[in-house]
Write a structure and sequence with these properties.
The complex is a heterodimer of chains A (198) and B (170).
Chain A (H helix, E strand, L loop, with lengths): L3 H9 L6 E3 L4 H7 L17 H11 L5 E6 H6 L3 H8 L4 E7 L2 E2 L5 E2 L8 H8 L3 E5 L2 H13 L4 E6 L20 H11 L3 H4 L1
Parallel strand pairs in A: 1-2, 2-3, 3-7, 6-7
Antiparallel strand pairs in A: 4-5
Chain B lengths: L8 H10 L4 E4 L6 H9 L4 E4 L4 H12 L4 E6 H6 L1 H9 L6 E5 L12 H12 L4 E4 L6 H13 L3 E5 L9
Parallel strand pairs in B: 1-2, 1-3, 3-4, 4-6, 5-6
Helix pairs in contact in B: 1-2, 3-5
The chains are: A alpha/beta (198), B alpha/beta (170).
Chain lengths: 198, 170
């Protein structure tokens, strides 16, 4: 297992001009990103669905790399997203998965069969042409450039250290610096779409 | 029932094209096969098949944020499965999307026997989603009304298709 913040620090060097949906990594990414107008930190809009949202964005913006930092709890709620992504096969979609083996925001209870789920195998079984799994940061760092140089869709499962939160939601520090509405507005302005969605 | 009293899939397709739909995010039900064949043959439409309706809302949200015009085509049963996704992804991100909902169990006459129909409008009302009933080609202009309303209000608007046992499946 490795720390999400350390992984994102490495990833930041390879980000280029990609659109990044930081998911559960948002609290760290907000301090690391050098291109916030292309970041889509949405927090937790619903119980699951980040993979499908990212797919939609990738289909809508085929000329831009769309990089998602999904989490295993989110994906487990919507596993059916995998065959849809594989069928659509957007070459600009890079699906990274933060697997901390638990529901960290609810106190760290394990997800079903937490230690034994091979998400890279699931992705391949669903039809992803490429999938990887990393448990060590050095391996991740050594392969990242090559992963991003190849077309998607690709799933990159990573074992990350849980950052368990036990405080009541109202007492947790907010890491978001923008509202969701502002995030969407900023991205659309960056993409020249301001009038489309507003 | 006379042919002209039905809702033809060609009419629905025309409404999609007229309103600039780029992507149809959908999960087929037993009554939409003919529409599927037409959509598949239409080069201006990109079909995105999901395996559970909740994913239609998050997918459509991504498409809309990225500047496209999706439509969600699902059955009322799947709509009810999708409550949290509708709340968080579509309403929460102010997504102007039309939901075309197969109104399973709906009947204008007599008693509705299917609880899928019993709860459909109650469900939409609970989420504050406005809706229009479309039963035949004569009602088809309501689909354009729904698109205009979605765009203006930046909210999902539903079209309830109350003719699912006729024109959609020949």
């Amino acid at each position: 297992m490795f720390r999400t913040a350390d992984m994102l620090e490495i990833f930041q060097q390879y980000r280029g001009d990609a659109i990044v949906i930081p998911g559960r990594g948002g609290r760290h990414w907000v301090h690391l990103s050098t291109c916030p107008q292309r970041d889509v930190p949405l927090g937790d809009p619903a119980m699951g669905g980040h993979a499908s949202f990212a797919l939609g964005l990738a289909l809508a913006q085929p000329d831009k790399k769309v990089i998602l930092f999904d989490s295993e709890g989110d994906l487990l709620m919507n596993l059916g997203a995998l065959p849809t992504i594989a069928e659509q096969a957007p070459p600009n979609f890079y699906h990274f998965l933060l697997d901390n083996e638990c529901y960290a925001t609810t106190g760290g209870q394990p997800v079903p069969n937490a230690k034994n789920v091979a998400y890279d195998v699931m992705a391949r079984g669903a039809g992803y042409p490429r999938a990887f799994a990393f448990e060590h940061l050095e391996d991740f760092a050594a392969h990242l450039q090559a992963i991003l140089d190849q077309p998607g869709p690709v799933l990159v499962a990573m074992k990350v250290t849980p950052e368990v939160e036990n405080n009541p939601i109202g007492q947790r520090p907010r890491w978001q610096t923008r509202t969701r509405e502002q995030v969407v507005r900023d991205l659309q302005a960056e993409l020249g779409l301001s009038a489309a969605h507003g | 029932m006379a042919q002209e009293a039905q809702l033809s899939p060609e009419t629905v397709l025309e409404e999609m094209k007229k309103n600039g739909v780029t992507h149809v995010v959908w999960l087929p039900d037993s009554e939409t096969n003919w529409l599927y064949l037409l959509m598949q043959a239409e080069p201006s439409l990109h079909l995105v098949a999901v395996s559970r309706e909740s994913m239609a809302f998050s997918t459509a949200a991504g498409l809309s944020v990225g500047g496209k015009t999706p439509i969600i085509l699902i059955q009322n049963t799947g709509l009810m499965e999708s409550g949290d996704s509708l709340r968080g992804w579509a309403l929460g991100l102010n997504i102007p999307v039309v939901l075309m909902i197969g109104y399973r169990g709906w009947t204008r006459h007599g008693v509705t026997q299917d609880t899928a129909a019993t709860y459909t409008e109650r469900f939409l009302n609970a989420f504050g989603i406005n809706y229009y009933l479309v039963e035949s080609n004569a009602d088809a202009s309501r689909i354009s009304v729904a698109f205009a309303e979605a765009k203006k209000t930046k909210r999902p608007v539903a079209v309830l298709v109350g003719d699912e046992y006729h024109g959609f499946n020949r």
